[in-house]
Amino acid sequence: MCRHLAWLGRPRTLAQLVLEPPSSLLVQSWAPRRQRYGTVNADGWGVGFYAPGRPQPARWRSARPLWGDPSFASVASVLSSGCVVAAVRSATVGMPLEESAVAPFTDGRWLLSHNGRVDRAVLPPVRDAESTVDSALLAALVFDRGPDALGDVVREVGTADPAARLNLLAADGARLLATTWGDTLSALVTDEGTALASEPWDDDPAWTDVPDRCLVEVTPDGLTVTALAPTPSTPT
Ligand code: GLN
Description:
Elements: E1 3-13, H1 14-19, H2 25-28, E2 45-51, E3 54-62, H3 70-76, E4 80-88, E5 105-107, E6 110-117, H4 134-145, H5 150-160, E7 165-171, E8 176-180, E9 186-189, E10 193-197, E11 208-209, E12 214-219, E13 222-227
Antiparallel strand pairs: 1-4, 1-10, 2-3, 2-4, 5-6, 6-7, 7-8, 8-12, 9-10, 9-11, 12-13
The protein binds glutamine (GLN).
């Protein structure tokens, strides 16, 4: 299971968002605190971010662990952005191990990360997937349907594959969209902006947990959470 995060707000450096917090994505790549599936996230990492005057995001991905990319630390402290999506990967068994299989995936203005797994057999055929990894096929499906259909796509895919885990995180430079479907997601709303992350990157008590099976939207005006489906009841 991977870990991902997004930021929308005043520009922050990639180092501030990804490397420096006490439980940053860098630390989560070997010591996640809330990960339910898998123990380390060493099968690659990626970051996508938006720069002024350019609607498409810039993106850097690698099939190496984040801790094995020390050159990134040097540039990360001078790259800043007001909209960022980043992820570290723990590949699902049987999925390709390659840079193109690492989130965030992109199409036009959009970035998308998937924390989870899905049976590829239930996904409709898609064009232009970046890789054969389940997450890239799912990303291509979301891009095809339009990210505003994110909640519908998750509901449909989750019905077709009841064992699917579908925590998605998308951005277009001006807003963030996320779903919870089988794994953790936390939110931090501050005066400077809003963060969404698979798990809090520090112990700030202002982090809140997003319930399972929800759709989250973040705009400069704030954060809204809507239920996608009733939370599955725990067997007694
Ligand atoms: N299934 C995806 C992959 O193999 C995502 C894995 C994850 O969330 N750990 O990359």
